[in-house]
């Protein structure tokens, strides 16, 4: 069967180690190969599915898959229309991409950890983490991309002069004494937005994974432990379905809100 | 102080720290969610036709309020299983 572990911490530590590949000197220049490959595969699957369905879209009576895609696109479009009042046509596709991709990445948390470890063992890989969003690098990459887009949208809609002026003038007013204070506030906002955006998603999915691992460990301690752990595991898995969808929805909504906030004039 | 004593002290205080992180975070999150949901119920009772839209907003705000707590839980788990404070003990 699976490998035997010396201690609970070793079990958890083994399931939480990434498959890393150094691409340079030092401990910063390391790629988590498992995160990279899983997120690429899931991106191709999700967005490829959307592309395939829209290629044969008909304006007559839609097929079931087309109706499903229309449901998702309509849902995201409603959210964007109610929040974003600018001109750009890219905000809704950005939101749809983020939503579909994050839902698929989070959904990898439903795969049972030990069975997947067994399957990966047959393929010769000894530590492979299947949930990309449980890696801080993924969520930070998504949040920093949204942050960069927010700045780009701001510069595009206000001009670089107008954007820098607003850095020093909002939110308190156009008095030279208030300029440092305004800048400080804007700086705090700029730092806290991508941080909270990324850490919320990461924390939810990572904590969910750890609780699955801990409940699984409880099942290893005798019959009573297995029964209780099974019941609690079921409850937590059902709750986790809600969390996966909810966190993807929140990530998408905050993307739209940040992009809308980047364009608004004070 | 020998190594076992140092180890025990670090682990004891880390344990207390983990408990405080999770407990106080849960306190804040639950009180916040309780206040928000009580306002939702009040608003839904006043205007039942707005209930679907308010419910959508409730779920969004639930995720936002839970954010700090879950970040705290993630950090607490990190301290529980890969405690970096233990690295100060010489091998």
Descriptive overview:
The complex is a heterodimer of chains A (266) and B (91). Chain A is an all-alpha fold. Chain A has one domain. Chain A contains eight helices and two strands. In chain A, helix 1 crosses helix 7, helix 4 runs antiparallel to helix 8 and helix 6 runs antiparallel to helix 7. Chain A starts with 7 loop residues before the first helix and ends with a helix. The model of chain B has no long low-confidence stretch (mean pLDDT 89). Chain B has one domain: F1FO ATP Synthase (Up-down Bundle), CATH 1.20.20. Chains A and B meet through helix 1, helix 7 and helix 8 of A and helix 2 of B.
Keywords:
heterodimer, A: 266 residues, mainly alpha, 2 strands, B: mainly alpha, F1FO ATP Synthase, rod-shaped
Structural class of chain B: mainly alpha
Q: What percentage of residues of chain A falls in helices of 4 or more residues?
A: over 70%
Order of helices and strands of chain A: HEEHHHHHHH
Most extensive chain contact?
A-B, 18 and 15 residues
Q: In percent terms, what proportion of residues of chain A is strand? A: under 5%
The residue ranges of chain B in which pLDDT falls below 50 over 5 or more consecutive positions are: none
The DSSP helix count of chain A reads 8
In round numbers, the mean pLDDT of chain B is 89
CATH A-level architecture of chain B: Up-down Bundle
Subunit arrangement of the protein? heterodimer
- The counted number of beta strands of chain A is 2
- CATH topology-level name of chain B: F1FO ATP Synthase
Helix content of chain B: over 70%
Could you say which overall geometry of chain A the principal axes of the C-alpha atoms support? Answer: globular
Span of the ends, CA to CA of chain A: 63 Å
Count of structural domains of chain B? 1
SSE order and pairing:
The complex is a heterodimer of chains A (266) and B (91).
Chain A: H1 8-15, E1 20-22, E2 30-32, H2 33-55, H3 64-83, H4 91-107, H5 113-122, H6 136-169, H7 179-219, H8 222-263
Antiparallel strand pairs in A: 1-2
Chain B: H1 3-46, H2 51-81
Helix pairs in contact in B: 1-2
């Amino acid at each position: 069967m699976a490998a035997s572990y010396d201690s609970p911490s070793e079990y958890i530590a083994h399931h939480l180690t990434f498959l890393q590949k150094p691409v340079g000197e030092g401990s910063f220049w390391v790629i988590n190969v498992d995160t990279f490959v899983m997120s690429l595969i899931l991106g191709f699957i999700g967005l490829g599915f959307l592309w395939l369905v829209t290629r044969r879209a008909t304006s007559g009576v839609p097929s079931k898959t087309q109706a499903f895609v229309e449901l998702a696109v309509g849902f995201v479009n409603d959210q964007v229309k109610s929040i974003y009042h600018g001109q750009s046509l890219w905000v809704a596709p950005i939101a749809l991409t983020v939503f579909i991709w994050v839902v698929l990445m989070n959904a990898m948390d439903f795969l049972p950890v030990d069975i997947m470890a067994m399957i990966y063992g047959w393929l010769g890989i000894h530590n492979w983490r299947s949930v990309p969003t449980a890696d801080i690098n993924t969520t930070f990459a998504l949040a920093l991309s949204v942050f960069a887009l927010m700045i780009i949208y701001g510069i595009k809609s206000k001009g670089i002069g107008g954007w820098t002026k607003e850095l020093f003038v909002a939110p308190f007013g156009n008095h030279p004494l208030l300029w440092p204070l305004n800048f400080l506030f804007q700086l705090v906002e700029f730092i806290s937005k991508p941080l909270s955006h990324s850490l919320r998603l990461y924390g939810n999915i990572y904590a969910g994974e750890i609780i699955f691992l801990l409940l699984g460990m409880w099942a290893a301690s005798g019959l009573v432990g297995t029964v209780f752990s099974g019941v609690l595991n079921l409850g937590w898995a059902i709750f986790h379905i809600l969390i996966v969808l909810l966190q993807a929805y929140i990530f998408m909504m905050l993307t739209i809100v940040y992009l809308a906030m980047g364009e608004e004039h004070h | 102080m020998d190594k076992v004593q140092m180890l025990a002290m670090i682990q004891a205080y880390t344990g207390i720290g983990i408990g405080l992180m999770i407990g106080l975070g849960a306190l804040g999150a639950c009180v916040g969610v309780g206040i928000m949901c009580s306002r939702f119920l009040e608003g839904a009772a006043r205007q039942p036709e707005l209930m679907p839209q308010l419910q959508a907003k409730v779920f969004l705000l639930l995720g936002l309020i839970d954010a700090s707590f879950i970040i705290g839980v993630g950090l607490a788990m990190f301290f529980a299983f890969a405690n970096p404070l233990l690295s100060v003990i010489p091998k």
